[in-house]
Amino acid sequence: MPKAKKADIQPLPEKVETTTEAQETKEQETRYSADSLRRNARHLFHVNPEVVDGALYGADGEAFTITEVKTLITAYLQREVR
Description:
Distance between the termini: 71 Å
Helix content: 40-55%
Structural class: mainly alpha
Shape: elongated
Radius of gyration: 21 Å
């Protein structure tokens, strides 16, 4: 069997996540009450419970995924103090 030339080798296509895959992943993630997330703040997010309170202040809903809360905490901690 002859060796393939570099010009003959085609790169593998990159995997592109479609919206349906993203939606399925989002639906599979468990939602937790704000109180439960607050009680486990140190273990889950490595922050004090007060930080979770501040990050969730004004957020829509009563149940959140861990990924959503991590995003909210990051945004909360990066806010400019007035």
